[in-house]
Amino acid sequence: MIPTHIDTWQMTRPGELLRTQIPMPELRPGDAVVKISGCGVCHTDLSYFYLGVPTIQEPPLSLGHEISGIVIGGEPSMIGKEVVVPAVIPCGECELCSSGRSNRCLSQQMPGYSMGIYGGFSSHIVVPAKFLCPADNRGDIPLSHLCAVADAVTTPYQAALRARLQPGDLAIVIGATGGIGSFMTQVAKAMGCRAVIAIGRNEEKLAKIRKYGADFTINLSGLSPRDVKDQLRQFCNDNGLCSTHGWKIFEATGTKDGQDLALSLLSYTGTLVVLGYGTDKTTYMLSRLMAFDAEIIGTWGCPPEKYPEVLEMCIDGRVSLEPFVEERPMSEIAQVFEQAHRGDLRRRVILTPDF
Amino acid sequence: MIPTHIDTWQMTRPGELLRTQIPMPELRPGDAVVKISGCGVCHTDLSYFYLGVPTIQEPPLSLGHEISGIVIGGEPSMIGKEVVVPAVIPCGECELCSSGRSNRCLSQQMPGYSMGIYGGFSSHIVVPAKFLCPADNRGDIPLSHLCAVADAVTTPYQAALRARLQPGDLAIVIGATGGIGSFMTQVAKAMGCRAVIAIGRNEEKLAKIRKYGADFTINLSGLSPRDVKDQLRQFCNDNGLCSTHGWKIFEATGTKDGQDLALSLLSYTGTLVVLGYGTDKTTYMLSRLMAFDAEIIGTWGCPPEKYPEVLEMCIDGRVSLEPFVEERPMSEIAQVFEQAHRGDLRRRVILTPDF
């Protein structure tokens, strides 16, 4: 039965959370009511909450865009299905949607950002049924964990596709110890990279990522960009890999330091993919791209039609979710936001509704 | 008969030209001796001569990399053929060469830059025969004019391929009044762009480019980047073109102003191709690329195997050479360099040997 209200944790204004109830929206044809199993806490949520990055829907609104759950109402063919809700929901009808760029549909809606007041830190959410990704055959992976597919794993997958990642490639992940970066590392390896090099600052997390996709790690602490490049070249030379060209670099931190390092590593026929958000500016000589025949690609979300491929990677074990996520009851949202903001979390937190 | 010496204009050091003779190099199997018909004066030559940009082969060397001529010796199957000499000559054997990136082969040689002391401002040059582009069926186009294919037309063609330019696209050329930019405009139109917008500062040259590929021109004088964007949007709205996304921007000036403008025009699913060389740096928020799902592509030269397609465009009239080039005797090289450096030339100058 569809409840008349949705329980939610609302951002009444940046920095302020309120447990409240909001009306269940009126269902349009094709809508599905999803009872939320889990909603991941993403760096983007923290940007809205702490850093003044504006949401399209002005507060009050519920944050949260990384959602999994069970369809309990609306579109009859979907009722009872376990699903992942895409973080970016396109219109499905415009020229961008019909040309494979639905992830950047200009009419797109994102829960917890631009889908009215509705977001994932709630008991339920109403979304268009046709973009939902059914999570059949999930085996013993908790449905709540699969919410990470909605952003943390699909965004790296789309980044890899945009970089035209091929079996045999050398991939370098900057910020490989973070939420997006750790899945970027796993996805790059799952796609057949000959070597994936994970760069970060936390030795414990680097040790962990070596078990999940990274062939080599570099701890940035105390190193200059030149030192990093030297270590990379040495690794390539020691392992019969190309040290001169074709590196595919994934920048997942969104920080100026990370971006400066990425730009300094970019060389002949290289590709730099920007998938970490930050508001800093960088300074660069664009003609270097010309001399290098290199490129810089920004990537946003992932088209919903690609979600099943990513889910498959998680279900068949090419990408491990469990070691990188941690469940907490949604009532701890304020505490979790604080810990995440301070950088005190070791895993991506998934909040499970406990209203 | 192969002469024992090559007549040439040598850059003895930056800023200094000397008419002299250099030995004809010993021919290796597969080499061809080309009697030069014309060699274009490129912005790059001026960078070496006036701006201290270093050549790989330290002076003394002959500059000039935009060469056409007739094979008079060496590889027997080529003797008597009229040819264009690729500006960038790959090794043909490395991994980059075999994966379609021969334009960025790391063992590449460029006449007038890295091919020993040899360059195009000379009577003859010796090059590997297998990369030469035969100019059969050139009709009434002078062979000397076809030297422009070696860089000024092939570089824009490769830029268009790198941008995945499609029929129906909207292309914007910044610096459309310059040597590379005017051919970029023509090539974009020849490849079926729905509209090509040419941006420059010289009204007379803008009027000319409207006859050769540009559907609309914008004179930058007195305009801010925002004004330019407004004019572009207005043009799109007036002509039923998409004003919100997918613009393909070609930056051909290599200047900071041109690059800043290009970056400010880059928007949703946009592509910026950098094909103008300059040493200035720009400052940009890389996360904008992420939010826009946009990309910046640097492009270098053109693989020799693509030259025939470009030559065909010039021969069948899709790209007009004649209105954009001007022949001058090679003995006027110093004067031409000066005029080009001051920006006093209206057309790309092709120097014809008159030793």
TrEMBL record, chains A, B:
Keywords: Metal-binding, Oxidoreductase, Zinc. GO terms for molecular function: oxidoreductase activity. The keyword Chloroplast does not apply. Residues 29-135 form the Alcohol dehydrogenase-like N-terminal domain. InterPro entries: ADH-like_C (IPR013149), ADH-like_N (IPR013154), Dearomat_deydrogenase (IPR017614), GroES-like_sf (IPR011032), NAD(P)-bd_dom_sf (IPR036291). Residues 179-313 form the Alcohol dehydrogenase-like C-terminal domain. Its EC number is 1.1.1.368. Belongs to the zinc-containing alcohol dehydrogenase family. This is 6-hydroxycyclohex-1-ene-1-carbonyl-CoA dehydrogenase. It comes from Aromatoleum diolicum. The lineage of its organism: Bacteria, Pseudomonadati, Pseudomonadota, Betaproteobacteria, Rhodocyclales.
